[in-house]
Amino acid sequence: MTEPALRISDPDGFYEYLLDAHAGLTTEQSARLNAALVLLLANRVGDQDTLRECVDAAARSVRAAR
């Protein structure tokens, strides 16, 4: 199971940085940025079980928001 505690020292600052990275992009470019970011972070994490847990948690979160 993924860790419930935040490990980002400044989550609001990171979110703002992420939003700024999307500024001025088309919808397609924004989707490509997200995909590239996911793959880079997945490579950093490396552990297959952890990655699967994160994918499952993200999918649950999106489904719950419908």
Average pLDDT, all residues = 93
Secondary-structure element series: HHH
Number of helices: 3
Count the E strands: 0
Tell me the radius of gyration.
13 Å
Low-confidence parts, pLDDT < 50 over ≥5 residues?
Answer: none
Tally of separate domains: 1
Helix content: over 70%
Main sheet characteristics: none
**What best-fitting shape do the alpha-carbon axes yield?**
globular
Query: Helix/strand/pairing class, anyone?
Result: mainly alpha
- Tell me the distance between the termini: 23 Å
Strand content: under 5%
Provide an overview of this structure.
73% of the residues lie in helices and 0% in strands. The radius of gyration is 13 Å and the shape is globular. The chain has three helices and no strands. With 66 residues, it is mainly α. The protein has one domain.
Question: Can you summarize this structure?
Answer:
This protein is an all-alpha fold. The protein is 73% helix and 0% strand.
List the helices and strands and how they pair.
Blueprint: H1 11-22, H2 27-45, H3 48-64
List keywords for this structure.
mainly alpha; 66 residues; 3 helices; globular
